Amino acid sequence: MAAGIWVRKYVGKVEHFLVAGREMDVFLGIASLAATEFGIVTCMYTAEAGYKYGFAGATPGICQAIALFVIGVTGFCIKPLRDSGVFTIPELLERRFGPRVRWASGLVIVLGGLLNMGVFLRIGGEFLILVAGLGGDTFPLEWMMTVLLVMVAVYTILGGMLSVLVTDFLQFVVMSVGLIAVTLLILFQIGWSELAATVHAKHGPGGFNPFIHAELGWPYVLFQMCVTTAATLTWQTSIARVLAAKDTQTGRQIYTRTSFFFVCRFLIPGIWGIAALAILAPEATPSNALHAMPTFLSQFVPVGLMGLLIAAMLAADMSTDSSYMLTWSSVIYNDLLAPWHRGRWNDRVGLLCNRLIVAAIGLFLLVYGLWYPLEGNVWDYLAVTGTIYLASMSTLLIACCYWQQANDWGAFAAIITGATIPSAYLVAQHFAATQTWAKQVGPYYSGIAAYALTAVAMVVGSLLKYFFRPRLTEVA
Amino acid sequence: MTWPERFWWVVTWASVAWYLTVTVYVSIRGGWDIRRMLERLDEQNRN
Question: How many whole angstroms separate alpha carbon A59 and alpha carbon B34?
């Protein structure tokens, strides 16, 4: 926190606040991307996946590692994006599709992003309470969430991206030491054979292969490929690292060299989840699979190492929350408020506005985290809410960079389709009349439909404009 | 050990080894990156 507050003196312009003056180099970028994309919530849902599906639950990590590596090597979309010198993706889309598409893109990004992030605080608080045994009246969840949020908000509001990068680096080191130490303890004390035997006994061969797992199968793998590729291209917190990089080559190197981390991100906590499956006695197993890993850690990790683990997880959570708060606020300021400031507000007003938005997001997280009842797997919820914007933004970005005939009709059709399908699925889960239908369809088929139909909407919408308004498309 | 088991065994130990190496390397080089970034920003602010 002190380091984050100290670097605020370097923040003189909005550009410093949002993209750290575009001065970030490769290794700081790796630390920042890794720390941002690993929070307590990540640890909880990946451990839940390991507990429920065995090693097959780590499939999204492999998909994302491949996506990052390929996109980093080829520069697919991220090269033209970084070369353009924009702050956010909607800003680039405006150049091709006009200001209305920029605003609509900003809206779905903020909607999907905030719904996604809304559960972070609650899950982070639940983990810390379970692991440290703080539950009950002594330290209720609401207080744990508020303390976590205030700690993060203070330095993010003051130093923006610069504070986020410096604290991300420190948090990466602490987090990594804790993660490696606990994983080695599990691998040496419980042993690989015991873990593999447990997966065999509970899940059969499907625990090692997602294609033959009874609850997963090819729709799961295909949906993970869609989500992780789209996230690599357009997830605002990842893209913020490319945009803050000192040049395009550095941005690509950050992606390539961080790619394997995404395997670790899913597999390491996945092993913790499998260890919980192996060690927890049936009477000690919590009814909620999400709580199995922290319950196991509270019994398994010795006192000294527990301190390191809590420090590591606090570091992981702070780096994630700060970065997410900043990146969604950057879209609100840069794109949603663009019609009002039109880039003409001076740096003082711009900085004040950005800081107020970060504070407002913090308040939203606290309120939303307290009342939203989470249904089903956390990862499925995150993938579905993320799809609200990932489906349309990835389609728009690819079309913007590589399809000459793409136009604003196609862009609007893609945004509406991409947001409607996952939102409808989320709503259907909560109404008695549609709950059965939502369960039958499931998150994987609805997610695949969102990506496929969004691409179709982009093509059909763009071609319709050619058909009905040929002169307008020629001018464009 | 079956092929899928062998695959996950290799990926598990590769993850631990890679993460350990990268943590040490990035801890050293990342510190230098921060120093240089702050120097450049300081220069920008003075100009």
Answer: 34
Rg (CA), chain B: 20
Task: Spell out the alpha helix ranges (H) of A7-140.
Answer: 14-19, 26-36, 40-53, 59-74, 78-83, 89-97, 99-117, 120-132
CA atoms of A272 and A72, how far apart (whole Å): 30
Going from the C-alpha of A152 to that of each of A20, A358, B14, the distances in angstroms are 18, 10, 33
**B1 burial class (0-12, 13-18, 19+ CB within 10 angstroms)?**
exposed
Query: Token digits for A410?
Result: 């196609």
Q: Per residue in A234-263, pLDDT tens?
A: 988 888 889 888 889 999 999 999 999 999
| Chain segment A436-473, per-residue pLDDT in tens | 888 888 888 888 999 999 999 999 999 998 888 776 65
d(CA A367, CA A118): 9
**How many C-beta atoms surround the C-beta of residue A306 within 10 A?**
18
Please provide the average confidence, as pLDDT, over all residues in chain A.
Answer: 85
Percentage, residues of chain A above pLDDT 70: 95
A-B contacts (CB, under 8 Å): 104
Q: Cα(A362)–Cα(A150) distance, rounded to whole angstroms? A: 8
Q: Which amino acid is at A324?
A: Y
Taking 50 as the pLDDT cut, the residues of chain B under it are none
Residue A272 clears pLDDT 90, i.e. is over it: yes
Report yes or no: B6 at the A interface, CB cutoff 8 Å: no
Could you tell me if A407 and A462 are in contact, meaning their C-beta atoms sit under 8 angstroms apart? Answer: yes
A111 contacts: CB under 8 Å, gap ≥ 6: A388, A389, A419
Torsion A455-A265-A124-A295 (CA) sign: positive
Say if residues A207 and A53 touch (Cβ distance below 8 Å): yes
The number of beta carbons lying within 10 Å of the beta carbon of residue A402 is: 11
Write out the E strands in A418-470: none
CB contact under 8 A, B30 and A16: no
Q: Do the chains contact at A268 and B15, CB–CB below 8 Å?
A: yes
Question: What SS3 state is found at B13?
Answer: helix
How many residues are recorded in chain A? 476
Nearby residues of A34 by Cβ (< 8 Å), 6 or more positions away: A172, A176, A258, A261, A265, B26
CA distance A329 to A310: 28
A166 vs B: CB within 8 A: yes
Give me Rg for the CA atoms of chain A. 22
Cβ atoms A127, A47 nearer than 8 A: no
Q: What is the DSSP letter of A282?
A: G
User: Three-state SS for A236?
Assistant: helix
Q: Check CB contact under 8 Å for A196 and B36.
A: no
CA dihedral A391, A392, A395, A399 (to 10 degrees): 180
State mean pLDDT over A120-135.
Answer: 77
